[in-house]
Amino acid sequence: MITGQEYVDRIDGLQNKIWIEGEQVTGKLSEHPAFRGILKRKAALYDLQHNTSYQDLLTRQSSETNERIGFSFEQPTSKKMLKKRRLATQCLARMSAGTMGRSPDYLNTAIMTLGTSHTFFEEPFQWNILSIYEQAKKQDLSFTHTFINPQVNRSTHYVEYSDDNIIAAKVIDETDKGIVIHGARLLATQGGLTDQILVFPAGGNFVEPAFIYGFAIPSNTPGLKFICRESYAKHASNTFDHPLSTHFDEMDSIVVFDHVLVPWDRVFLYQNSRLAGQMYQETQLNIMLLFQAISRQAVKAEYLLGIGDLLAQTIQITDYQHIQEKISELIMTHEIMKSLLISAETNATKNKFGTMVPDPKPLSVACSYFQKTYARLVEILHLLGASGYISLPTEKDFDSAIGKDLDQYLQAAGANARDRVQLYRFAWDLTMSAFGSRQTQYERFFFGDPVRLSCSLYHAYDRKACIEQVKAFLKDDK
Fold first, then answer.
1. Are 55 and 102 in contact, with CB atoms under 8 Å apart?
2. Is residue 151 predicted with pLDDT exceeding 90?
3. Residue 158 predicted with pLDDT over 80
């Protein structure tokens, strides 16, 4: 169990190759304006493990070493443990208003799931993933991940075969020391801000052996670099003006593998199309990740309801029926997400690897529902705040000679001018700023294409009992 400072020092010490706005980052990553906010907030999550008020919830006693480990590394083997895991995830999610999609527990969950189901993989790779899991648990490592190829050609039958102009990362050589990877991958959220990167085979491309691999390597492995998008935090002036952008811009990056040597002992899947195709389903990796994600999204729905109701109360519009209707939509989403999550937890079953796995049906419904609903929730906040978002002053304005004017003209029935503007800026940053727009797009495509996920639900959901019930009713009615 590491502290926040140990996490920051470790990331600074890696000196990962990170590029942003045409320049390579030099010096301490924690001092760079694009990354210091998110690193500071991630550090706070690690520090929370050492807070005696939270330690029982966020940590566990290791059965191997008798030392404390982070909760996300523990294999849940009972419904009680699963519930405690959900509560711990939601505790962390509340620290970011549900906006940090890649808090450390997300990919720790992936490492735990793969490590505890290591016998799914073939020899000798199964021992590699177990070793990766044990190392991560003992050192409290953090991970980013990637499983998407660049979007060069998204037609159904396109596969990149050419070795002359490699785009998607592939195996170009195999040596006694390991496999050599060259090419690019998308979309590593927090790429370069973690100890290691977890690489999965890109979905659907299980034909060409050069694209079938899975491994975990340190983020500073020679030849590995992260090309970041524009920062939303770099120009955020302070927490009053940008209460979320300043702290929680996780950063997204393209991962470039320039003849990267991946040692054999870091490879857990290689050139086995059958295992690549079955990995998510057989290990229940997707379900365990989805349980963490829906836990976070339920917290985010909680915040959206709180913001919407507080906006309405601040300018006293709660007596209008159309306002009550809009806030009721927020209430319904909050309750639906909670209920689906509890249903998945209550109907959990133990898999063949000993993990208590939530019921996938309500989780899949929650995932598809939130994908389609989130943009509407954002729209409701837009409608509640209306033109109040358009001319928001900054904290410097309040502290200047015009502060008295703002105090007089921007006051609200339920708050003074400064408090009103602070609330509005919070809602604006969540839904309308560059950070907020990314949040909407992120939730819209979280866990994959909405249409494909809905189709997967259609194919996986057992509807036989419903059909037979209708047939029986019609038969009895004759």
1. no
2. no
3. no
Rounded distance, CA 146 to CA 155, Å? 21
Helix axes 79-94, 321-346, angle to 10 degrees: 140
Q: Is 204 a residue whose pLDDT tops 70? A: no
Q: Which residues contact 467 (CB under 8 A, 6 or more apart)?
A: none
Instruction: In whole angstroms, give the CA distance from residue 106 to residue 122.
Output: 25
Query: Does the structure show a pLDDT above 70 at 157?
Result: no
Contact 285, 279 (CB under 8 A): yes
What distance in Å separates the CA atoms of residue 208 and residue 225, rounded to the nearest whole number?
A: 25
Residues 244 and 315 placed together within one structural domain of the fold: no
Which residue shows structure tokens 């939601």?
90
> What are the two backbone dihedrals, phi and then psi, of residue 148, each rounded to the nearest 5 degrees?
-125, 130
d(CA 450, CA 441): 12
Positive or negative, the Cα torsion across 435, 437, 441, 446?
positive
Go through the chain and tell me how many residues it has. Answer: 478
pLDDT exceeds 90 at position 236? no
Same domain for 312 and 271, yes or no, is no
In a domain, 473, yes or no: no
Q: Are strands 349-350 and 213-218 parallel, antiparallel or unpaired?
A: unpaired
When pLDDT is cut at 50, 70 and 90, the band that residue 234 belongs to is confident
In this structure, the answer to whether residues 273 and 291 fall within a common structural domain is no
Q: What is the pLDDT of residue 65?
A: 79
Assess if residue 157 is contained within a domain. Answer: yes
Nearest-angstrom CA–CA distance, 451 and 12: 40
CB 117 within 8 A of CB 83: no
Terminal CA-to-CA distance of the chain, rounded, Å? 68
**Cβ atoms 384, 326 nearer than 8 A:** yes
Q: Is the peptide bond before 384 cis (omega within 30 degrees of 0)?
A: no
Q: DSSP of 179-222, one letter per residue?
A: EEEEEEEEEEETTTSSSEEEE-PPTT--SSGGG-EEEEEETT-T
What CATH number should be reported for the domain holding residue 73?
2.40.110.10
Please give the Cα distance from 117 to 152 (Å, whole number): 34
Residues 279-298 as b or e (16 or more Cβ within 10 Å = b): bbeebbbbbbbbbbbbbbbb
| Contact call for residues 205 and 273 (beta carbons, < 8 A) | no
Q: CB of 220 within 8 A of CB of 14?
A: yes
Please give the structure tokens belonging to residue 163: 């070795």
Count of structural domains, the chain: 2
Q: How confident is the model at residue 447 (pLDDT cuts 50, 70, 90)?
A: confident
Q: In angstroms, rounded to a whole number, what is the distance separating the alpha carbons of residues 284 and 348?
A: 12
Domain that holds residue 318: 284-467
pTM: 0.94
- Is the bond preceding residue 124 a cis peptide, omega within 30 degrees? yes
